[in-house]
Fold this sequence. Notes:
Layout lengths: L1 H13 L5 H22 L9 H13 L4 H20 L26 H9 L6 H16 L3 H5 L6 E2 L4 E5 L5 E5 L2 H19 L18 H14 L10 H12 L4 H8 L4 H4 L1 H17 L4
Antiparallel strand pairs: 1-2, 2-3
Amino acid sequence: MKALIAEFLSYLSVERGLARNTLAAYGRDLEAFARYQEASQGVKSPETVTREMITAYMQSQKKAGLSTTSICRSLAAIRMFYRFLVRENFTREDPTDLIDTPKIWQRIPDVLSQKEVDAMLEATQGRDWQSQRDRAVLELFYASGVRVSELVGLKTDSVNLEVGFVRCIGKGSKERIIPVGKRAVEALIKYIEGGRRKILRGRIADALFVSRLGKKMSRQSIWKQIKLYARKAGVKKTIKPHTLRHTFATHLLEHGADLRSVQEMLGHSDISTTQIYTHVDKERLRTIHKKFHPRG
């Protein structure tokens, strides 16, 4: 089974172009599945795995304390693995066919209010290189809704400041173009012509956002700065890496953007992923109704 898992991961990398972190997650899930089947059932070939064996594996994960989300992700990896095996004629049947995905509550992401976003941006005020860089980071993050991994991967030629758009490479190496507003453009110009030059001091770097050493900023350092400015702004909500991305999508929908456009800008392959933000908006309306209606 290990050899077939390796072949499947190679297929995902070469044919599907999945990101390294995604491949690693699939690999861990499938290796754990293979170890369980061999240890508990004595099974070494995927062809002899039955629907009942997969169900037993899922139950063992639940007993081990894994969350429903983790079990769903593991089952998704096993499904993809067996679809690959059937398509490539390594096995005749797919034992995952009639297995139901465990039901999970759709968690509504935390989002910031416009006032909280403004306060965070205001907290970056300053003339030094770090203030200019961090202002540009927050403005672009909120203006485009890119993922943190996409933000750190941006290069100097990824932004068109004349037209006002950013080009990023998302999951599965898919490229997308996202428009950005004038305030983000202004912050980027100030950073590129000022703070970035001060950081580099004549050195050459492809990365758009660089550390004080002139290297590409890491996801951890971006995340650290976002938390810093949230604290400075007095934001009491729990700030997570995707909070500004969630906020971007929610604010667009609140102001009348259509779901398909938001889906395209976020880089979601399935519109059902984007639909969670309509629930966020409904929750906001419910809160407003409860607060202001006489019988709320």
